[in-house]
Design a protein that fits this description.
The protein folds into five domains: 63 residues, no CATH class; 109 residues, OB fold (Dihydrolipoamide Acetyltransferase, E2P), CATH 2.40.50; 216 residues, no CATH class; 74 residues, no CATH class; 239 residues, Ribonuclease Z/Hydroxyacylglutathione hydrolase-like (Metallo-beta-lactamase, Chain A). The longest helix is centred in the middle third of the chain and has 26 residues. It is built from 27 helices and 28 strands. The chain is globular and about 100 Å long. β25, α25 and β26 form a beta-alpha-beta unit. The protein has an eight-stranded mixed β-sheet with strand order 19-18-16-12-11-10-27-28. The chain has a seven-stranded mixed β-sheet with strand order 20-21-22-23-24-25-26. It is of the alpha/beta class and 755 residues long. α1 crosses α3, α8 runs antiparallel to α10 and α8 crosses α16.
């Protein structure tokens, strides 16, 4: 079973490396071949399972992609009907939720879309049937080195379009029955009860997360604490939480059962306890929405308990393999989610690290060994997924796991259950749980802010990662086997690798894809400059945290020599704080110095120039008289090498362009121009374009942005001048290192948006 499951997984993963989906007929061809191979010889089991996995994933991918929003329907008013398919989230500007579409403009379809409604006054519930007037666009995420692939995530969840509800009179509730999405309705009811009865605090969102699995609204600082301490798994309901609750239930029920002779004579106490544990595991998994970690944990626990009830024996690897196969059969595209790899990887490490060992009598050594195995074994996974691992995870998890498992989870569930009988008593219990969590949070925050708490490292290629995994396997071989320490040698490439840097006199430039906003990174041999940081979109999400910081980690950056924030608009400075929190910033230059009063910031004034590693930098604008003009106060930076020159212009408009032509005309000529104000019609006067005379212009824009940037007339101006044009919406991150690379084009997958 283990070999079959792993081969099936390999087939599923193999499809994810295709740039396009093979013809659908291959589903049936591969299924037929897999059956034939299995019938001919059991030696063909691996090949047969691999073919079956590939075919099943291909069938599932076609099923998920069966409906795609027509290009001509993007941005148009559409009348749709369907059901609210998730717990609505109260966002900053309204409500967001998943919507299961039944009809669009009277055409029957079956698909899932993500909607936003800027209406805080209507109380939406999961399972309600609505008619909405919407405007939709295709799934389109940012594409950057080290960044999160939203398009892959959306495909794995079956989400086929994003959009917003237009406030029209045709929006109306059609029905509201309890049997539609009943599980999510229950989860929403529990969530709302907790939120009504628990005062808002820094840790109160985690109480909701521990009960219902809903983690939206948790701020970035809290997530960073968890990442730095290696404890982010504590707030994702999985094997730890379900296992503790099942064990707790088993012990209580079995103890009580033994004290009632009539019950014991009919059903043995272990069987009664096992059934109760299975029921609580299923109930808790359902309350958590059956996410991938809860699916895995619940399946494994169910296998163990069912076989125990049948008085049979099962090996841990068999249960793990069955759970793996079951999750892949339910949704093979779950391999696109990091939670899949962390969940199954963690359990595989525990099984491997605990198998074939002599059982020590000291329970603390048993506990410490599991922490050691997980902490060491997850290093390659952590570096692969997050470009970091925690040095304090062993200490943090040794404190937090029993604290959360034995204390917080039972209290949170008991308090939530009590709310249905007495909101006052339930609120007191939840408040007590919140105070206990705050105490733990203080310890974790202190550990997270230690200078050496976490280590960031770049993974150069898959072979380095595979070598590190082999090293982990060797190091964790049971004591007594010779050569265990040789595993360290296999792990060394992962830690000794240093990213390549530009040569002296050379620069690498990257215009990041941050949606509708701007962020670029300039790297010389020994220095790093970040120009703008994208937008802050909500309390829990900004482009600095999700795009800029991960990209800088791929460079192996430890510090930023200069952070330039061109002006005060959110789409240019919104992600700055996340960048400042993650890196030591030597100096900040900006025209909006009031936005950085708590930092040692200074103005980016015309005439300031410097040289880094043979590369010249100079601010051409603004002067001290142009510092309060909003867009027209944007910092303008000229960067020059012997071969190339870049002109970064922020959001300057026509008046600033005219000023530059009149005062800095001889310095404007540049090979590569980052288009002023994202290509707005308020920019690009002829005299400015002639003075710059670029060979290439780059537009930092979001896909189908509401401003319709870049403007068609501006594009025509550049086209008439023979300038090559690229935009981040279609190209993803645009890199000059030193040759041109378009990240979306050079890293294609079958699920990614294509023009």
């Amino acid at each position: 079973m283990r070999i079959f499951s792993l081969a099936f997984l390999f087939g599923v993963v193999l499809l994810q490396h295709f740039t396009f989906l093979p013809d659908k007929k291959w589903v049936w061809i591969l299924l037929f071949l897999s059956v034939v191979m299995l019938k001919l010889s059991k030696k063909m089991l691996i090949v047969s399972a691999c073919a079956f996995g590939f075919a099943w994933a291909l069938h599932f991918a076609y099923s998920q992609m069966s409906w795609t929003l027509p290009h001509e329907s993007e941005g148009k008013n559409l009348l749709i009907t369907g059901y609210i398919a998730s717990i609505p989230d109260q966002a900053q500007f309204g409500q967001t939720f998943l919507f299961s579409v039944k009809k669009t403009n009277e055409q029957s379809i079956k698909s899932l879309i993500h909607l936003t409604w800027q209406n805080k006054f209507v109380h939406l519930r999961a399972g309600q049937e609505w008619q909405f007037t919407v405007r939709l666009k295709k799934i389109h995420g940012t594409m950057n080195p080290g960044g999160f692939d939203y398009e892959a995530f959306a495909l794995s969840q079956g989400i086929r379009a994003n959009g917003y509800i237009v406030n029209k009179e045709k929006n109306k509730l059609l029905s509201d029955h309890w049997y539609h999405y009943s599980l999510d309705r229950i989860r929403q009811h529990v969530k709302e009860k907790i939120e009504r009865n628990l005062p808002v605090s820094n840790t109160s969102p985690w109480i909701v997360a521990l009960v219902t699995g809903e983690r939206r609204g948790i701020n970035q600082e809290n997530w960073q604490v968890l990442r730095n301490t290696g404890t982010n798994h504590l707030m994702a309901i999985a094997g730890l939480h379900i296992g503790f609750m099942a064990s707790f239930t088993f012990a209580i029920v079995a103890w009580c059962w033994r004290r009632i002779p009539f019950l014991t004579l009919n059903i043995p106490a272990p069987i009664a306890g096992g059934l109760a544990a299975l029921m609580i595991a299923l109930a808790y998994s359902a309350l958590a929405g059956f996410s991938i970690p809860t699916q895995r944990a619940c399946l494994m626990l169910s296998i163990f308990l069912v076989i125990a009830l049948l008085r049979r024996h099962v090996f841990s690897w068999h249960a793990w393999s069955l759970a793996l196969l079951a999750v892949l059969l339910i949704n093979p595209l779950s391999v696109l989610n990091e939670s899949f790899w962390l969940s199954f990887g963690s359990v595989a490490l525990i099984i491997y690290g605990a198998s074939g060992r002599l059982n020590p009598h000291n329970i603390w050594w048993k506990w410490g060994r599991i922490q050691w195995v997980i902490g060491l074994g997850l290093i390659p996974f952590s570096i692969w997924l997050f470009q970091q691992f925690s040095f304090v995870s062993f200490v943090a998890n040794s404190i937090a796991i029993p604290y959360v498992g034995f204390l917080l989870v039972p209290l949170c569930l008991f308090g939530s259950f009590t709310l249905f009988f007495s909101e006052k008593m339930g609120g007191i219990i939840l408040l007590f749980a919140d105070k206990l969590l705050s105490f733990l949070w203080g310890i974790l925050a202190w550990l997270a802010h230690l200078p050496w708490a976490s280590w960031h490292q770049v993974v150069p290629n898959y072979w380095t990662l595979i070598a590190a995994c082999i090293g982990i396997v060797i190091v964790l071989i049971p004591a007594g086997f010779p050569g265990r320490m040789l595993g360290i040698i296999w792990m060394l490439p992962l830690f000794l690798y240093h990213p390549v840097t530009p040569k002296s006199g050379e620069l690498w430039f990257t215009l990041l894809d941050v949606g509708q906003g701007l962020s670029s990174v300039v790297q010389t041999k020994n220095h790093l400059l970040v120009f703008d940081t994208g937008a802050k979109l909500s309390v829990s999400f900004d482009m600095g945290e999700s795009v800029v910081v991960p990209f800088l980690h791929t460079l192996g950056a430890k510090r930023i020599d200069m952070l330039v924030i061109s002006h005060g608009d959110n789409d240019h400075r919104g992600g700055a704080q996340a960048v400042i929190d993650q890196f030591f910033v030597t100096q900040i230059k900006t025209s909006a110095i009031e936005k950085f009063s708590q930092h040692n910031a200074s103005y980016c004034l015309r005439g300031e120039k410097w040289n880094w590693d043979g590369v010249d930098f100079e601010f051409l604008y603004p002067s001290s008289q142009e510092l309060n003009l909003d867009n027209n106060s944007s910092c303008v930076l000229k960067i020059s090498t012997r071969e190339q020159s870049f002109l970064l212009t922020g959001d300057i408009e026509k008046s600033a362009e005219k000023y530059l032509v009149e005062n800095e005309k001889n310095k404007l000529a540049s090979n590569i121009l980052i288009a002023p104000h994202h290509g707005s019609k308020t920019s690009a006067i002829d005299e400015f374009l002639q003075a710059v005379n670029p060979k290439t212009v780059l537009f930092a824009v979001g896909y189908r942005n509401r401003y319709h940037f870049p403007n068609a007339l501006v594009l025509e101006k550049y086209r008439a001048q023979g300038v090559t044009q690229y935009d981040t919406a279609n190209a993803g991150a645009i890199l000059f290192s030193p040759s041109l690379s378009l990240y979306r084009r050079d890293n294609p997958h079958y699920w990614n948006y294509k023009e």
